[in-house]
Amino acid sequence: TDAPARPQRATLPLRPELAGLEPYGAPQLDVPVLLNVNENPYAPSDEVVADIAAAVAEAARGLNRYPDREALGLRADLADYLAVESGVRVAPEQVWAANGSNEVMLHLLQAFGGPGRTALSFAPTYSMYPEYARDTGTAWQVGRRAEDFSVDAAAACDLVAEVAPSVVLLASPNNPTGTALPPATLEAVLGAAADVPGGCVVVVDEAYGEFRRRGTPSALALLAEHPHLAVSRTMSKAFGLAGARVGYLAASTALVDALRVVRLPYHLSAVTQATARAALRHAPALMAQVGSLRQERDDLVAWLRARGLRAADSDANFVLFGTFPDRHAVWQGLLDRGVLVRETGPEGWLRVSVGTPQETAAFRAALSEVGGL
Ligand code: PMP
């Protein structure tokens, strides 16, 4: 499926910084084993589907009206879920929700970034971050992660002091590396951010938070002490609800209140709110599934290392592995065998999402055939 030909834009008053740019997104190919965008491989169960369908039917009866603009019912349900998942209790007014954590993060940059301000992150990291910055007129700067993809706390604090960003974006677990940041690093960066004149919001992006290994705490535990911290989550991964587009964050009420100013009115449709609330009622069953994906992930890391490959430590539902002298050839070899992974990350590495046991087995078989490329 080739992308459609791009229309001619020469005579349009396009913002100069957008000239020649391609829209972000991985190829959407029709392949038997899709392990390229870190989705949950399990479709919603019949029980979840029935509950969502009933909730959406109920919402449909009121679709002549605009939805609940504050989505407080959903935000209360998300707060209850976070309390169970992480042991940290926040008020519904401390939770913000939007169409995917992509939109949550755009709201953050709209409120706290902007012309004359800078957002800072540590590469390699999620490739949408510079796009949020670009789209909000925020300058963009990156520090480097170490060879093992960790962030050196002292160097990070020096960079925060030097750049004086208004927003720091820290993905933990990070995409594409899968690595999580230790609480000491987060606390050090929060301390440095607190000293930035004019203020600095630290966003910990926990899109993959539920997949963290035992002993890796969530940054939610740091919220009570740090009013400039926002912890972002999504229903796209652990809940297997990527198609519904629901992301959220927890932060101080003051921070959330600022996001209410920049959101579009009625940004979360009644259908979206009903869908998310129905899925949240099934959190216990869905979290059990997360447990088996974690196990599958740990087995995959062990298998890759046993083959003599490198695999980054993963607290996520994917594994960065390599290194290959010609990673594109390996990517193509896997695709030829019906397995789509992602050609991303530092040179020589590839990223594979954790699938069902059958899908992961297909990946192992294909990689064994492609072998020592
Ligand atoms: N943050 C990270 C680190 C991600 O990898 C992703 C999805 N690839 C997102 C945020 C966005 O997810 P969504 O908009 O579906 O919530």
From TrEMBL:
GO molecular function, one term: histidinol-phosphate transaminase activity
Aminotransferase class I/classII large domain boundaries: 33-361
Biological processes per GO annotation: L-histidine biosynthetic process
UniProt keyword Repressor, yes or no: no
Names of required cofactors: pyridoxal 5'-phosphate
InterPro entries to which the protein is assigned, alphabetical: Aminotrans_II_pyridoxalP_BS, Aminotransferase_I/II_large, HisP_aminotrans, PyrdxlP-dep_Trfase, PyrdxlP-dep_Trfase_major, PyrdxlP-dep_Trfase_small
Swiss-Prot/TrEMBL catalytic activity: L-histidinol phosphate + 2-oxoglutarate = 3-(imidazol-4-yl)-2-oxopropyl phosphate + L-glutamate
Keyword Lipid metabolism: no
Modified residues (N6-(pyridoxal phosphate)lysine): K237
Documented EC number(s): 2.6.1.9
Pathway(s) it belongs to: Amino-acid biosynthesis; L-histidine biosynthesis; L-histidine from 5-phospho-alpha-D-ribose 1-diphosphate: step 7/9
Keyword tags: Amino-acid biosynthesis, Aminotransferase, Histidine biosynthesis, Pyridoxal phosphate, Transferase
Family, similarity comment: Belongs to the class-II pyridoxal-phosphate-dependent aminotransferase family. Histidinol-phosphate aminotransferase subfamily.
PANTHER family, sorted: HISTIDINOL-PHOSPHATE AMINOTRANSFERASE (PTHR42885:SF2), HISTIDINOL-PHOSPHATE AMINOTRANSFERASE-RELATED (PTHR42885)
Assembly description: Homodimer.
Name by which UniProt lists this protein: Histidinol-phosphate aminotransferase
Organism: Cellulomonas marina
Gene (name only): hisC
